[in-house]
């Protein structure tokens, strides 16, 4: 679970972006890479039991509440989760509803380079034509790749990646103006409009809820791995 910052997990060609106060249950099989897009404080709890609990054998992205965060922090302090603590964790996880969080990365190597470039530097203002020159493909080809393999246009893909990056910065207490510039927006007004369109709330509302440990976002991407 991510306490602060933002974590990226790649599995079978899809990237799961986990902002502050979000977590994921995932079997180790198939996880290709994990990296912090913004400095992240993370709690990892491993289920080593012979018979994994429900949801321990499936991909499951969740938004943590204060009780779950407290249970996970206690498990981290102990160095393990067992006995009554493990039972409480199982009960809390079973009560949670899955949320969206999968941002597909195209399998086509040209589209993949573009997508990973956007995730690595969301403030990059390169157009689709610019990206085409970088990866050796025309604009229309890249657009087809994104629409066919992610279900999103290039513009939508970049906007959602930028907003997720912004969430991590806002959760760390950065100002709306600074976050807007870091996310590639020329002014706060445009950023606020884009943020509201993707997250369903203003950056200020998100920052306030993140400080209280209860972000209330609507799903940003798909609800599961393919």
Describe the overall structure.
The chain has 2 domains: 2-95, no CATH class; 105-211, Orthogonal Bundle (Arc Repressor Mutant, subunit A). Helix content is 46%, strand content 17%. The chain contains 9 helices and 6 strands, in the order βββββααβααααααα. It has helices at residues 66-78, 83-95, 109-120, 128-135, 139-150, 154-171, 176-182, 188-199, 203-211; strands spanning 2-11, 14-19, 22-25, 31-42, 60-63, 102-104. The strands form 2 sheets. The protein has a 4-stranded antiparallel β-sheet, with helices on one face. The chain has a two-stranded antiparallel sheet with strand order 3-5. Strand 1 and strand 2 (14-19) form a beta hairpin. Helix 1 runs antiparallel to helix 2 (83-95), helix 6 crosses helix 9 and helix 7 (176-182) packs across helix 8 (188-199). The longest helix has 18 residues, at 154-171. The protein is globular, with a radius of gyration of 18 Å. It starts with a strand and ends in a 15-residue tail after the last helix. Residues 215-226 have low confidence and may be disordered.
């Amino acid at each position: 679970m991510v306490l602060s910052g933002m974590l990226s997990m790649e599995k079978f060609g899809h990237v799961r972006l986990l902002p502050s106060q979000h977590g994921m249950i995932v079997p180790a099989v198939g996880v290709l890479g994990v990296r912090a897009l913004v400095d992240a404080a993370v709690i990892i709890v491993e289920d080593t039991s012979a018979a994994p609990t429900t949801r321990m054998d499936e991909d499951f992205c969740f938004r943590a509440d204060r009780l779950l965060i407290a249970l996970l922090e206690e498990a981290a302090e102990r160095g393990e989760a067992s006995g009554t603590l493990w039972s409480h964790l199982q009960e809390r996880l079973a009560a949670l509803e899955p949320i969206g969080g999968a941002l597909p990365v195209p399998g086509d190597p040209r589209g993949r380079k573009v997508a990973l470039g956007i995730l690595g530097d969301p403030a990059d203002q390169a157009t689709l034509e610019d990206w085409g020159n970088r990866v050796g493909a025309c604009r229309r080809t890249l657009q087809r790749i994104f629409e066919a393999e992610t279900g999103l246009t290039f513009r939508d893909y970049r906007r959602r990646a930028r907003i997720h990056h912004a969430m991590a910065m806002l959760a760390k207490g950065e100002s709306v103006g600074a976050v807007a510039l870091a996310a590639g927006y020329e002014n706060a007004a445009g950023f606020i409009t884009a943020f509201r369109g993707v997250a369903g709330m203003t950056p200020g509302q998100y920052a306030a809820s993140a400080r209280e440990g209860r972000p209330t976002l609507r799903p940003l991407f798909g609800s599961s791995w393919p």
